[in-house]
Amino acid sequence: MIRKIKVLFVLFSTFIFSQEDQKIIKxxxxxxxxxxxxxxxxDYLSNEIGGRLSGSLNADRAVEWGFxxxxxxxFDDVWLQDVMVxxxxxxxxxxxxxxxxxxxxxxxxxxxxxxSVATPSVGIKSNVIEVKSFEELKTLGxxxxxxxxxxxxxxxxxxxxxxxxxxxxxxxQRTNGAMEAVKYGAIGVxxxxxxxxxxxxxxxxxxxYGTLLxxxxxxxxxxxxxxxxxxxxxxxxxxxxxxxLRQQCKQFDDVxxxxxxxxxxxxxxxxxxxxxxxxxxxxxxxxxxxxxGAGIVQSMDIINIFRKINYIPKRTIRVVFxxxxxxxxxxxxxxxxxxxQKKLKHIxxxxxxxxxxxxxxxxxxxxxxxxxxxxxxxxxFEPYLIHSFERGGSGADIxxxxxNENVLAGLRPDSQRYFDYHxxxxxxxxxxxxxELELGTFAMATLIYLFDKYGLN
Amino acid sequence: MIRKIKVLFVLFSTFIFSQEDQKIIKxxxxxxxxxxxxxxxxDYLSNEIGGRLSGSLNADRAVEWGFxxxxxxxFDDVWLQDVMVxxxxxxxxxxxxxxxxxxxxxxxxxxxxxxSVATPSVGIKSNVIEVKSFEELKTLGxxxxxxxxxxxxxxxxxxxxxxxxxxxxxxxQRTNGAMEAVKYGAIGVxxxxxxxxxxxxxxxxxxxYGTLLxxxxxxxxxxxxxxxxxxxxxxxxxxxxxxxLRQQCKQFDDVxxxxxxxxxxxxxxxxxxxxxxxxxxxxxxxxxxxxxGAGIVQSMDIINIFRKINYIPKRTIRVVFxxxxxxxxxxxxxxxxxxxQKKLKHIxxxxxxxxxxxxxxxxxxxxxxxxxxxxxxxxxFEPYLIHSFERGGSGADIxxxxxNENVLAGLRPDSQRYFDYHxxxxxxxxxxxxxELELGTFAMATLIYLFDKYGLN
Lengths: 457, 457
Description:
Two copies of one chain form a homodimer. By secondary structure, chain A is an alpha/beta fold. Chain A has two domains: about 25-90 and about 255-455, 3-Layer(aba) Sandwich (Aminopeptidase); about 90-250, Glucose Oxidase, domain 1 (3-Layer(bba) Sandwich), CATH 3.50.30. Chain A contains 13 helices and 16 strands. In chain A, the strands form two sheets. Chain A has an eight-stranded mixed beta sheet with strand order 1-10-12-11-13-16-14-15, sandwiched between helices. In chain A, strands 3-2-9-5-6-7-8-4 form an eight-stranded mixed beta sheet.
C-alpha cells in the first residue's frame, strides 16, 4: 500500500513538474516570438559589420560588438580570451574565363578557396581535365593531368534528406582537391561549388595543402554551379578548350584575435557549466548571416529571454563566441585548452551553426542514459513542431569538450536551403526570416532551461 | 499452436509489406529529388503566365496550359469542366496617402481587396479611426465613426506556431471589415495586411459585402504592415489627420471558365477515386507561385513520378485543378455537384494549398478508424523528416467531398514564411526553393501511393 502511494506520488509529482515545465516553455515561446532581440542584433552584425574573416578588421569589430552586446545584456562577467588566428586575404575580385578557341571566350563565376595561393598576376591558362573523384585522378594519371587545371565536378547528391550529408560526401573535392591533383602535375584546381542549386554564386570554404611545401602549392578556386555546368558542356564539345584563372589572395602571418565569453553564475551549482554558442568569424563574401551570425545572436538572446521571464539559472550559463571556426578552429582549441587547465566542468554544450532556419530538432553526442533522459523531453518540443532528436554530432567548436558524462548538442534547423547560401555572397541578412530565427532561439532556450533545471543524470 | 503460427505469419507479412513499401517510397524520394518536373513546370506557370485571377485572360491561359501539360503527362483522359466564375478587375494601381496637415503628406502602400468597389475617381479623403476589433467599432458607435475611414489594425499574432492559426484569428478584419464598419457610417476601410513581417507589400484577398445593397458598399483596401505602423504612429500624434484612398477596381458579370481534370483509371478498383489537386487561379498581384502554383505542379508531377518508377495505380487517380478558389470557390462547388450527380466515390482527396515549403506533415478529416490506419504510416514518412499527422481540416477545394467513410487531407508545409508572400506582389517564382517544392511532391506522392495500395478500411 505504501509502495502504491509512493508510485502514485512519483507519478503525480512528475505530472506537476511536467505541467510547470510546459508553462515555462510556453512563456519562453511567447517571449521569443514577441520580444526576442535576435533579429535586431543580427541586423547590426550583418549590415553594420558584415563579413568577418579571422584576422580581418571586421573580425576585430565583431569582437568589440559582441563584447559590448554581452555587457548590455547584463551578464555577471564578460571577457575576451586571446587566440592567435590565421590571416588570409582574398585581394581583388577573382577572374576566370573559358576560351573555346582563340578570341572566343566565356566569363565564369569563380572565387578563391580559403587558404589558396594566388596565381601569377597574369593568371594561369591551360587545358582542363574534368573529374568526379580522386580515384578518377589516379586512373587518369600524370600523362593525362600534367600541366592542366583539374576541374572537380561531382555535384552534391540531391536525394538525401539532410543536405549536410550531401555536403559531407562532396566536400573532399574542395578541402583536398589541390593536394590530390598536384600529385599528378596539375597546375591549378577549380571545384564545383558546394551548392545544390543551379545559380551564379561561387561558394568559398577552407582548403588544405596538407604537408605540401609552399613552392609546390597550386591555386584552388570554386566555380558556381551554373558555370560548372557550362564548363562541363563546353568540354564535351571541345576537350582542348583553355581555362584562365586569376586570383591574388595571400596568406599572412597569424594575428591576435579573441573568443568572446560571458557568463551568469549558477545560483545553486555554479561549478556546473552550461555552454551555448556559435562562431563569430565568417567568410569574407556575403555577411555571414546564416553562417554563423544566426548562432551568435540566438546564443546571447537566450539570456535576454531568461531575464524577461525572470528565470534565474541554477547552473552557470556561459555564452561563447568562438573565433576562427571557418579556417582553423583556433578559438575552439584555445577554449578547450584553458577549460582543461582550469578543470572546468561543462555538463552541457549547445552550438547553433547550421543556419537560422525553422528548427527541426537537435543532434546529440552523449551516453545512453543521458539520451534516454533527453528523449523524455521531446514531448515539450513537439507542440512547437520540433520533432527530431537524433544522436551523432554537435558542432565543430564544442566537440572537443566531449566527456563520458556530459552532453553536447547541435541545433538542427531545416537544412534544405542552407547550401543555397553557405559561404557565398548571398548569405546575407535578407536571407533570414525573423520567425525562423526566433524559433531557433526558442528551441535553444528551452533545451538550456531543461538542462539547467534537471542537470545530468 | 496454429493461432501462434497465424500471428507470426501476420507479423512476418506485415514486416515484408513494410519493407517493400519502404523500398518503393525510397524510389519515389530518389525520383522526386532527381527527376521531378515540379520546378520546371512552376517556372512556366509563374514566369510565362503569371498572376491568374478568375475570369482574366491569364486564367484562360492557365487552363489551356494545364490541359496541355496533363495531356503530355500521358493521363488516360483529360477534360475541362465548365464553371461560371466571378470577374473582378483591379484596374490601375491604387494610390493612398496620409495628410497630417495641408501640404504635408506621406505615401503609403495599399491595394484594393478582392471584390471591393472603387472609390470615386478623385478618391475618398477623410479622417481615420483606428480599431482592433468589431467590438471596438460597436463601442465607438456611429458618433465616432460616421463619415470616417475605419482602419483595422489588429496584427496577426506572432506567438502561435501555426501561422495559419494567426491568419484565422485576424482575417475577419479583411473579409467582414467593410460590412461591419458601414453599419456605423464608415465611408471606407483600410485593413492591415495579413502578414507577420514588417514590410512594404500590401496583401490582397477576398472580402465580402454580405447582403449589402450595391449602393451602400464602401471601398476596402489592404495597407502594408510598414504603412499600417506608420499610420498608427501618426494617428497618435495627430488624430485629425486625413487619409486619401483612390482605387478603380470593378466587378463584372460572371464569365465562363473551367476546372481542369485528368485521370488514370485504376487497374483493380477503377470505381474508387483518389483525388489530388490544388487551385489554378491566383490573385492578380504576384504570380501565385506559392498560392497555389506549387499545389498545381506537385499534383500533376505525382503521375510523372509514378510513371518513372513504373507504378501502376490500382485505384483511379484523378488530378483536379480547381478554378476560383480565391474569390468564390465556384470550381470546387461545380466539381462537387457533378460528382454527386454521377455518384462518384472519392475514397481519398488530397489538396496542396499551403505553399511550396518543406513539408512537415498532413492534416486529415476522417473517422477514427481511418486515422489510426494513417498513423501507422507515419513510420514511412519520419525518415524524411515529415512528422506531423494531425486531424482537422484539409483544403477549401476538397472539403465538400467529405463523407463518413472517406479521408480528406491537406499537405502541411512549414508555415513560417507563408504569409510573407500570401496574396502579395512578392509571391513570385524566386520565393520558391526547388528542393522544398520537390519534397512536397514526394510527401504527396507517398501518401497517394499508400492510399492506392491499401485503400480505406
